[in-house]
Specification:
single chain, alpha+beta, Beta-Lactamase, 5 domains, five-stranded antiparallel beta sheet, 16 helices, about 40% helix, rod-shaped, disordered C terminus
Length: about 525
């Protein structure tokens, strides 16, 4: 039996061996987790169970500088996708794919993937023979800091900005892109990298780098409206920088302008007035069907956008404008027409050889454009001529009447007289610019006649509009002749005065009013 000191010693030795064995096991287990780098400029990441369980010091700084993803594995995947093709396979579990080595797209760095049990070890280092100085690692770190500065500057930008690698994977986005993804993929959706492409159709046009902007819509869910963006593509190294500027207001403006243009087009198509609009270079840009009907110009000629001079020259050939005396006069008339239309003062009536009459008006438009309006006024001119002929004929008939005739409007204006009236009262109302009224006319009568109350009675008669009856009276002139006056009411308040001159020997019955 061992004594007590020996037992205590053996217990102490056993305890020490147990502690040593435990530390040995711990160290052996820790070996797989320790990201020991071969050099100071290498970055080492340990991945297990879809999580980054350990990193080297510099690798930890790299992950901390990556913003956007919420998990460290997503940050690592995003960081690798910026430099390596197929970054997704590099972070696959150990049982998914074995060891591999790959060089970055720029050929400067390489990555080594090593697997042991369920652990993946990724080591990034410079390619042998390129550079291994620690200053290069600081340069990479400086570039990462610059990237973070640029990201901070663009995070508040109101437009979408993102970067894609050559295979179309999104490697960087700004905050506006993230907010738009949350809006159109659901506010509660988890941000999983690589992020979904908001503009899939842009992938098909990725070869059109530095080309014109492409207007693309992001389709909303449910009742949400589509959002329109003007997308631009710029080549940066092997990557593609994409910019999407909101264009909703521009699209709405274009839609309103298109609807307004369609409304105007329909309105112009229904107008009976021919319309021809020339731009600032004086080429035809718009016309309506009425212009075809009025001018008989062929459609193919008008759609070929002729110049203003060519258009008018074609009108002259078709005898749709007055024929000038010579070509020099014609060109001078064209210059005058263009200048007057630009100032908005051109307005003429064209009497054509076939009897048609056009009223042509020139109007200026914004941006130096000019509009010519062709209105067929042949019917109006024919009606006017017919009305004028009827008036002249009526005047001829009235002038042939031996009695002096005077017609007064309801307001008392002298509107019609004949030649016998001019001879009797020694006046020509048509020779004055202003029409003679009832008071002035009766004053003229009074000056050539003896005193009589007839003229006052007539003024009262002419100013009465109801319950009027025809009446007559005889007055004496200063030259001794007597005149039989007859006053007849007409429709609409018009009054007719008839004067028949009697012989000087006939008895004068002045101041005698007879009601007929």
């Amino acid at each position: 039996m061992l004594n007590e000191p020996n037992s205590l010693m053996m217990f102490s030795i056993g305890l020490a061996l147990s502690v040593l064995l435990g530390m040995t096991v711990f160290i052996l287990r820790r070996v797989d987790l320790q990201p020991v780098a071969d050099s100071d400029d290498a970055l080492v990441f340990l991945v297990r169970d879809q999580d980054v369980v350990d990193t080297s010091f510099e690798a930890r700084r790299i992950l901390d500088a990556v913003s956007g993803p919420t998990t460290e594995l997503e940050k690592l995947r995003l960081y690798l996708s910026r430099h390596f093709d197929g970054a997704e396979k590099l972070v696959l579990p150990a049982n998914g794919i074995g060891d591999l080595s790959q060089v970055s797209r720029d050929g400067q760095t390489q990555i080594q993937r090593q697997t042991a049990a369920d652990t993946v070890r990724l080591k990034l280092s410079f390619v042998s023979g390129v550079s291994s100085a620690s200053d290069d690692l600081h340069s990479i770190r400086a570039m990462e800091n610059e990237l973070e500065t640029l990201r901070a500057n663009t995070s508040a930008a109101p437009f979408l900005l993102w970067r894609q690698n050559p295979i179309g994977e999104i490697t960087w986005v700004n905050r506006a892109y993230l907010d738009t993804v949350r809006t159109y993929n659901g506010t509660g959706s988890e941000m999983v990298w690589p992020l979904p492409a908001l503009f899939p159709s842009l992938q098909a046009s990725i070869h059109n780098v530095d080309g014109d902007a492409q207007r693309i819509a992001v389709h909303g869910r449910g009742d949400s409206e589509d959002a329109w963006y003007d997308c631009h593509i710029t080549q940066i190294g092997q990557d593609i920088l994409c910019t999407a500027i909101p264009a909703d207001e521009a699209v709405r403006s274009e839609n309103r302008r298109r609807e307004f243009t369609q409304t105007l087009t329909k309105t112009f198509a229904e107008l009976a007035i021919g319309l021809a609009i020339f731009d600032r270079s004086r080429h035809l840009v718009l016309f309506n069907p009425a212009l075809l009907d009025l001018t008989n110009l062929p459609t193919d000629f008008l759609t070929s956008r002729p110049s203003l001079v060519g258009f008018l020259d074609r009108l002259r050939e078709n005898r749709v404008m007055p024929e000038p005396r010579d070509y020099r006069t014609w060109r001078a008339a064209i210059s005058d027409l263009e200048a007057a239309a630009t100032d908005g003062t051109y307005s003429e009536t064209w009497s054509l050889p076939d009897g048609q009459t056009f009223h042509v008006t020139g109007r200026p438009h914004p941006d130096g454009a000019v509009a010519l309006l062709f209105e067929d006024i042949s019917a109006e001119m024919s009606l006017t001529r017919h009305f004028r002929d009827e008036l002249e004929q009526s005047q001829t008939i009235i002038d042939a009447v031996s009695e002096a005739v005077a017609v007064f409007s309801p307001s008392g204006q002298l509107i019609v007289t004949n030649a016998a009236y001019h001879d009797l009262w020694q006046t020509d109302p048509d020779a004055t610019l202003e029409p003679m009224d009832l008071a002035e006319t009766t004053r003229q009568w009074l000056m050539l006649s003896t005193p009589t109350p007839v003229w006052g009675d007539f003024r009262e008669f002419a100013q009465t509009t109801q319950d009027r009856e025809e009446w007559s009276a005889t007055i004496g002139l200063l030259d001794g002749r007597s005149v039989h006056c007859r006053f007849v009411p007409q429709k609409a308040g018009v009054s007719l005065a008839l004067f028949h001159v009697q012989s000087a020997q006939a008895p004068m019955k002045q101041d005698l009013r007879q009601v007929g």
